[in-house]
Fold:
Amino acid sequence: MTARRYLIAGNWKMHCRQSDGAALAADLAARVGPTADPRFDLLVCPPATIISPVSQAVSGSAVAVGGQDCHAQVQGAHTGDIAAEMLADAGAAFVIVGHSERRTNHGESSATIKGKAAAALRAGLTAIICVGETEAQRDAGQAESVVAEQLTGSIPDGATASNSVIAYEPVWAIGTGRTPTLADIAAMHGMIREKLSGLVTDPGAVRILYGGSVKPSNAAEILGLADVDGALVGGASLKADDFWAIAQACP
Ligand code: PEP
Structure:
C-alpha cells in the first residue's frame, strides 16, 4: 500500500480575530517547530481576514495555512467572494471546498464545488474536497450512494494526490458530538478509495480525512482505521492542547 502521511487540518470556521488567531497559530508553530513530524502534517484554516497574520505567526514552522472556501474565477464582479489566487497571495497553501455548511447554507452543488476545486488547483493550492451524507440519507441507506455521487460531481479534472485531499464528513456528526461507528467510518473510507480509482490517476496515494466531532478521546481509534489518513477538525481545533492531542494520536 502507498504510504500516506496523515494530515490534521483545523477548520476555524467563523472564529478568531487577529490577536487570538495569531496566538493560537504561534502556539501550534512552537509545538511543531521547523520540521514536520514524520507522522503528520498540521494545517490551520482560519477565516480569510486573518490568513495573512496567521501565516506570519507560523512562518518558519512546518504548520501550513489554508482558506475555508474560494470562488471559481480568478477575479471579477463577485462581491464578497475570494479568488483562490487571493488566498495563495495571503499565504494559504490549501483551501477547503464543499464543506457541508457551504453546501447547505449557501446552496452549493457538486458542480459549483468542482469549479472551486479546479480554481484551487489553478492557483497552486491543495483542495480539500468535502463530502458527506445527512442523517436522513444515512437512515434511508443512501449514505454510500450520496457520497459516491458527490465525489463524481466534485472532483475536477487534473486532481491528484499532490493537489487534492478528500474529507468525509457525515453532516450529522459535525459539531454534534456524535460520530459514526468505527465500522461505518472504515466502510465509507474503503468505498471512497475504490471510487477514486475512476476519478484520479493515483487513487492509492490520495489522503482521505475523516471529519465530524473528532476530539482527543476518539482520535486514536479513528486515525487507526485503514484508509483514514487524517482528520478535519472543527471545534477541537480552536484549543491548541486539544488539536495537538489529536495530532499526537496519529499512529
Ligand atoms: C467541521 O466543521 O469540519 C467539523 C468536523 O467540525 P467538528 O469537529 O466541530 O465536528
Notes: Residues 96 and 128 are 5 Å apart (CA to CA). The longest helix spans residues 18-32. The chain has ten helices and eight strands.
